[in-house]
Design brief:
The strands form two sheets. The chain has a five-stranded parallel β-sheet with strand order 1-6-5-2-4. α4 (101-112) links the parallel β5 and β6. Residues 1-23 have low confidence and may be disordered. It has helices at residues 6-21, 38-46, 59-64, 101-112, 124-130; strands spanning 35-36, 51-55, 66-67, 71-72, 90-94, 118-121, 135-136. 36% of the residues lie in helices and 16% in strands. It has one domain: Rhodanese-like domain (Oxidized Rhodanese, domain 1), CATH 3.40.250.10. By secondary structure, it is an alpha/beta fold.
Length: 137
């Protein structure tokens, strides 16, 4: 009995390719990027810290649902949009990838350009939703 047939492999490849083309997930997971939990992020917001939350998914994914108050910068556009990021406060990137791959990749780009308070949100949008925090639209 074969569980993984050529037809299934082709369908899987198509799904993976579609995810990459829509900006769903990057292929890397930078290990030097600090992570922040949903609870730590909310504590910073509640304490009045200046926090910029960045959705690294595709613009269509952002349009369907995103963390309230977040901005959309797909991970593959991070470097070309460096001027849009503040130099003060925390910048927290999120996605829906396992191990926060896309958000960590975007955060790493900012680190390489001198930003120090950049984080990937542990669990991404799913963790935010599980905690019951607000989303838009």
């Amino acid at each position: 009995m074969r569980l993984f047939t050529p037809e299934l492999a082709l369908r899987f490849t198509g799904v993976a390719l579609a995810a990459l083309l829509t900006g769903a997930c990057s292929g890397s997971d930078p290990v030097g990027v600090p992570r922040i939990s949903v609870l730590e992020l909310m504590a910073a917001i509640d304490a009045g810290e200046y926090v910029t939350i960045v959705d690294t998914r595709s613009t269509s994914s952002y349009a369907s649902r995103h963390i309230a108050g977040s901005i959309s910068v797909p991970y593959y556009e991070t470097e070309e949009r460096l001027g849009e990021f503040p130099t003060a406060g925390k910048i927290v990137f999120y996605c829906t990838c396992p191990a926060e791959n896309s958000s960590a990749e975007a955060a790493e780009v900012l680190q390489e350009h001198g930003h120090v308070n950049v984080y990937a949100l542990v669990g991404g949008l799913e963790a935010w939703l599980d905690a019951g925090y607000p989303t838009e639209p």
